[in-house]
Amino acid sequence: MNERLRKLRKTLDLTQREFGERIGVKGNTIAQYELGRNEPIDAVLSLICREFNVNEDWLRNGGSDEDMFIKLSEDEELAMYTQMLLDSTDDIMADMIKDFIVVYEKLDNDSKQVLKNVAKSLLDKANNK
Fold first, then answer.
1. DSSP summary character for residue 128
2. Of 1, 75, 84, 85, which one has the fewest beta carbons inside 10 Å?
3. Threshold 0.70, pTM exceeds
């Protein structure tokens, strides 16, 4: 399990400290798990699975890396990203996105449509490169 924990953390591009903070343990505790010196208790495994949308069977027993995460519907994935955005406190990009959403919701319908058209045009241009 120690190798899967390390693989998960690196896949999420988090330091041991950042990973630990997300589940309420110290970075050193994560280091001990990854080294195999300690094994996380069931409650910690449940927190990891819930916080990072990890497939518990993969975490406990291994398997293909494509089984690392629970497959979400588009709505579930959007809800997860929205919650992550709302939870972020010191991320400049997240703050910009939040500000954009607030401004967008204050626009009249015609202005919203103009923004949608601009965004669609930019996406189409990016996809054609």
1. T
2. 75
3. no
